[in-house]
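Structure tokens please, single chain.
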Amino acid sequence: MVLLWSFFALLVYTLAAPNNNTVSSSGPAKLWNDIGDVGKGGACASDAEAFCKDQSPGDGRVAACLSKRILDIKEGNTAGKSVNKKCRKELADFKIDRSSHINKDVPLARSCAEDAAKLCKEANDAVRPASVLACLRDNKRKLDSKCKAEVFRTQAEAVEDYSTDYMLYTACKTDASTLCAESDPDEVVDCLATKRYSLLPACEVQVSRQERETGSDLRLSKHLYRKCQADYNRLCKDVQPGNMRAQECLEDHLDDTNFSAECKEELENLIAKRVANFSLDTALRDACEGDLQQQCQHSLAEIDSNPNVKEAALKCLQTFKDELQSEQCKSEVHRRMSRAGSNVLFDSELVSACKEDRAALCSDVQAGSARVIRCLQDHRSSLNTKCAAALFDHEVHISEDIDFNHQLKKTCAYEVSELCKDMPHGHGRIIRCLEKELDNTDMSKECKAEVEAVMSVQAKDFRLDTRLKGACEQDINALCAHVCNAAPGQVCGGSVLHCLQENQEKISAQACQDEVFYFQLMEVKDFRNDVILAQACRQDVETFCKDVEPGDGRVHICLRQNKDQLSEPCRVEETKLAAIEYSDIRLATKLNKLCSEEKAVYCKEVKSGKGRMIKCLLDHMAEPDFGAECKEELQKRDEAMKSDIRYDKAASEKCKADIETYCQDARTSFRGEASVLKCLVCVFSELQEGCQTEMSRSVRMALWDYKPGSPLTAVCDSAVQQFCPRKAHAKSGAAFTIGVVGRCLSKSVVEGKYLGEQCKELVMAAAPRDVGGLHN
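Here you go.
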């Protein structure tokens, strides 16, 4: 048998050329043992005969066979003897020598000759060893299939033994011998990577390059492949490894319930490494190189050499993600922003800025499922400036797309698929859809709680509401630029939102008008969505409404029922909100619902807003067919309008200047007693025409729907008792009584009856044209 194998080897030797010049640009290279293989005599002859008798020597076939034997023994895949130590040494020497020159690796040279001539004609292994293979690796995506397979083979060999990568070995052999002497050949690179800051510069470069190459192909990521093989075969078997495709497929399934724990842990560690070291993120680098250069004005070389440039470039990609030219780049940026929302370790800015705060405040919180991010949010007031700023930037990003809000997306997966299935992702659309479906009975309690938590965060700062921020940017700059100049990481606390409401008439963009109205609708429904009111009323809610479930305006109703006992800050904010609510029937959910038919019959041409619809309904409240439920709810609103001018949108706007001129003291006095309305009645003849018109309408309405004891009309109570039929006020609010008191008092003035000066002034203000000639 030995004679047969020796004869076979001799035959191959006779036929093989001792030098190979297949890739001519690098010049000829002498082959190992003249055949480019071990086993022709020497330390490996006996092992080659024992373990590789079916392999013809040459082109590295015996070396590959013996290397596989060593690996199988190590991993327990086969029994028996392993390759002897001297042969192992010869194998190592052979691989080091072969990796130095492409023509020493006959299969590689043969398969890659055309690609080398086309892509790597400037590379010369005779001048710079292993430069042709390095060039081929850099152009791997452009190689034909045969060359690509051979290049992959060299990379796979380097994973098992770092010495087979000539550049890696020559740059790192000193560091390996001093820092990782106890490591096996397949563990040296991992060992060196953990001691990166102790490496020689040339070695650090090669270790990073090796990590980048192995990280781009699942088959080359030894630990990852072993731990994730089953998940890959089950979930991603149709995804071709390479360019991080297989890894990204697995990462997209990280939250699957049956995803293995060991694969998840390995993947998360790998993602964290890529976040920390941009050079390892080959998929993003390849996809976005053009956009980084064109959109962000940074090259990959600049990014790799300067951490500050790296942060600026990555932020640029996120900020201008919708304007990127490459669809693949958009996809990769979207994927990374989605991951960043799930784990603090996947957001490079948060990792670096919040390291100390995380250790001090969230050390017992395990990373993943956005738990650490929630912890940092809960301790916002205690964060250092850098961490607070990074957290705020993170919150801005996750507000843009439900895909970036890990917890919301996970908790509301069913609701998104059923309630928002036709809504495209991005620009906060899915999040807004979920907000609008809060009252849907198909929404789970868990999803509802998450949506309400998101709304609570949005209420703290307009910048955290991506739709409002985009729609109102110009109007905010024009109307509210002075309101909030928050330092990095500090929230505006709802001040800009309140400014927009106060200047609603001046807002120029219809989209901004719509967003402000939506915010008003949300704050009317749930007090927590108005962060300023929520803060002002925190103790009042605890005292008077702690058993009231938030939502559907229930807490607001409770607070208003206890208005005489509220703290001053709470009373002020609740009154402001009530005034906003009274200005648009769409904000009065119950009234809007109860009066839907009356709106269609009597006010179909009236546009909602500025109190127009409520005014129209009040004007028609005495109609015979006017609904009782609508009338009852309207009268509640009317009572409020009769007690405080701020609830009467038209009157408060038209009389603003006159209030400033004549009623400053009344404006600051106790609200709810019609103090400003009474003041304006007293100076009625001095008011501007627009204010007179609205005051006449307001007072006429108060007398028309008269109720004894109402603050504005109380001055006429005794006159009503004396001059008006009892039936006119015995059943106040009934259809046959509405308007009777007003007509009765007007008639009494015409007839010269003494009503009292204040009551007479009130009646004359209500109907100046009818009785103005009687004024003395």
